[in-house]
Structure formats: C-alpha cells, structure tokens
Amino acid sequence: EKKGSEVSNMENIHELNEQKDFSEDAAEQEHFQAVVASFFAYPIYSLREVDRVQANFGTLSASHKKLMKYDYMERVKNLKSAVMKNASFIYSVVSPHRDLFEWTKLKSGQEVFKEIPTSIKNRSKMRSTLRSIVRDWAKEGQRERDSCYKPLIDAIIQHYPKPITEEGDRVTVLVPGCGLGRLVFEFAQKGYAAQGNEFSYFMLLSSNFILNSTAHTEELELQPFIHSWSNVYDAKDPLQKFKIPDVWPGSLPQNSDFSMVAGEFIEVYGHHTDRWWSVATCFFLDTANNVMRYVETIWSILKPGGVWANFGPLLYHYAELEGECSIDLSWEELRHVITQMGFQITHEEFKDSLYASEPKSMMNVVYTCIFFTAVKPELTEKQGSTSTTPESKKTGETGSQEEEEDESKRVSQSASPNGKNQENDQKEEE
User: What radius of gyration, in Å, describes the C-alpha atoms of the chain?
Assistant: First the structure.
C-alpha cells in the first residue's frame, strides 16, 4: 500500500490490500499477486528440487553408494517432510488471498491449486523470508537480535529513559524498514509508542500472520535452511527445526501503543514534519536509491531535540541493478551529509553483525556495521525552525568543519567500514 495505510494495535494487515482499489494501479496488483503466488507455489517448486536431489544421488554407482554414511533416500524423505511442514505455515500466511488463483477442494478437504508460475527472484525472497522469521521470532535468533537491535534500543532509552514524559506524553519511536516487526514489538513492550513501516509484501504478509494469528509461544515449527547444502558440517544441520514465536505478540499490555504502516518510507512519512520523538533504523539506509533523501526525511520528521539511532552496513541494494539509480556514498561521505543536514552525531562505532544466518553453517557473511546516534538540535532564535534542511552549519550543531574532518579521520583509522565476505547475492537475502 504505497500511500501508507495504518494498522493500529495489531489489526489485520491483509485488510490493507482489501481496502485498496487495485484497479487504479494495475502494476501494484500484479506485483502483489506475484508475491502471493510465490507463497502458494512454494511446495511445488521445492518438491521439484527434492526430486532433482534424488535423481542426482541416483546417478551414483553401487560402489559409491556404499561409501555414503547415510542412505540418501533418508535425506530425500526428510526433505519432503520439511517442505510440507514449511508449506503448511506458508499456506496459513496467505490463505486469505487464495481466491486470487484457481483452486479446487478435494473430498479429503485438501485445497489444490492450478500451477502458479513464479520468478526465481521471488522464490529466493520467499526462502529468505523463512530465514528472517527465525532471526526475528525464534529463540535461536536472539544472538543476532542482541547484536543489532539491542544497541538501538539502548540508544533510544539513553535519550528518553522514561517512555512517558512528566506531561503524560508517550515517547514515539518510528522503525522504517521494520521487516517482521520484532524491533517495533520490543519498543512497544518497553512502553514506547512504537510504529513500524515496511514496504515488502513478503514481510508484511508474514508479520501480519505472526502478530495477529498466533495464540501462544512456540506454536509453529519451521525448517527454513533445507534449501542449501553447501558449507554443511553435519547432514542433520539443514534439517534443524525452529519454533516460533519465542514471545507471543499478544502478551503486550492492553495499553500498549503498537502499530504497523505499509508503504514506501518517504511517500508515507514525508509530510510528518516535527512529529516523531525518535527514529530507529536497522539494516535500512542502504535500501535507498538516494540515501540522502532518507537522511533528509528523518531530519524533517524528528521533533527538535529528537534522536535517530542507526545500525547497519552500506551494501547499497540498487548499486548493481541496470536501469536503477543508486547514489553510493562511503560512510565518511554519508557522515558529512548527516552533519551538514544539521544533526549532531553523539556516538559512532563499527560493530560486526550477521544477518539471517544459519546457526551451524560452515560459512556466514559478517557485516561490519556503522552504529551511530544523531540528535536534531533544539530550536534557538538564530536557528529558527529545524524542520527544513539548513543551508549551512550553524551555531550549536557539530562544531567547526575542521573538528568534523578530524573526527572522520579518527573513525576511519579505528575501524574499516567495509563488510567481510559481502557477496552480491546477499542483496536479495536481506
């Protein structure tokens, strides 16, 4: 929903799509249907890949088969079982949208769909969504959440120790690119008025189900790592089962303020001038075509005295896509943009983090992420309104240009902003 429809207090997100008149935007309708198709088609293309695994092992000679530690047919059996376990969860996520496609119900009650064509790109995103669910909503994802969510939560709490002010106002936290909503949930759980914003239908559909349709902790079971057998130490590792959610979203107190908004960040929030107390961005800045527009929007929507906390790499998503604009700035250049916009950077450091990694894999991509806190200065008579972009640095913002350059040099010497083993295909995995 590009223009931004809000779902407050965990109402059903799928209603957003029912409320929108898709006839006004044929391209949007086509895109939504393609995403939903990749959910419904998951067991079809996944079982075909299992058949390919079986055929490949079938080419082994009798002598080679005797060398195998395990019977390969046992692996095939386990893979088929795992595919159907995942498919059961996936079907629950998108079942409200099944009438977008042709299907019939068998006497057994099983619903069978006519074959649905899907793109390789959407199949990959479907699988990465399963892995992201473990990252956000399984106990095994706690390590990753601690590495990137905890610094952001701590930064906001440091700036606003009490979620409700002495005047009775609840401190607001906006989380753009919130994915499956766990970081938003964590802020709401601590008493803040937390709102998540997400553009991806893969994330919106999945988070809607987890937030609104689960009844208790560890209700569901997934096996999201069955689709890759490279860099595997033990043949049992890819078959590992994960239970979700580790925390029931319905456990939030009745007076909690938790909402989700679907849409593109700038389009949805560009008019929210001086409205938000704080903004927390995690693995988000590099999703922009022009990261300066993100910075500009965050500056505009923050109240004077508000805080912005960021954690993530600079793996620009559009950098290598033909026909797409991508403004790829180094951290030193981006830092300059942030301070020129008027922000005071009060903390910055580099921290390593994984992203939706397989816990027992022999290879994981490690990102060296920039974690910083930036404050929008309070208003002064000389400064006037801070809701517009200042043309130049002014008194009380970040000091002299020389001090900024010295600080940039110090930071660039203390840690390298380049991630380790950042492979191009990781763009789709995020």
Answer: 23
CA angle at 176 for the pair 172 and 179, rounded to the nearest 5°: 115
Place of tokens 């517009």: 388
Tokens of 242: 């994960």
Distance CA 165, CA 171 (A): 7
Q: Exposed/middle/buried for 64, CB within 10 Å: 0-12, 13-18, 19+?
A: exposed
Segment-wise mean pLDDT, segments of 10 residues, the chain, 430 residues: 40 40 70 94 95 96 95 96 97 92 76 82 97 98 97 98 95 98 98 98 98 97 97 96 98 95 96 97 98 98 98 96 95 98 98 95 96 92 45 38 42 36 43
At 77-116, the pLDDT tens digits run 999 999 999 999 999 999 999 888 887 777 777 777 777 8
Instruction: Cite the beta strand spans of 180-322 per DSSP E.
Output: 193-198, 220-222, 242-244, 258-262, 276-282, 302-312
Over residues 45-55, the pLDDT tens digits come to 999 999 999 99
Q: Which of 3, 429, 4, 7 is nearest to 208 (CA)?
A: 7
Rounded distance, CA 157 to CA 160, Å?
A: 5
Nearest to 250 by CA among 202, 306, 209, 311: 209
Give the three-class secondary structure for 138: coil
Whose CA is closest to 359, among 148, 141, 75, 127? Answer: 141
Q: How far is CA 20 from CA 25, 94, 282, in A?
A: 10, 17, 29
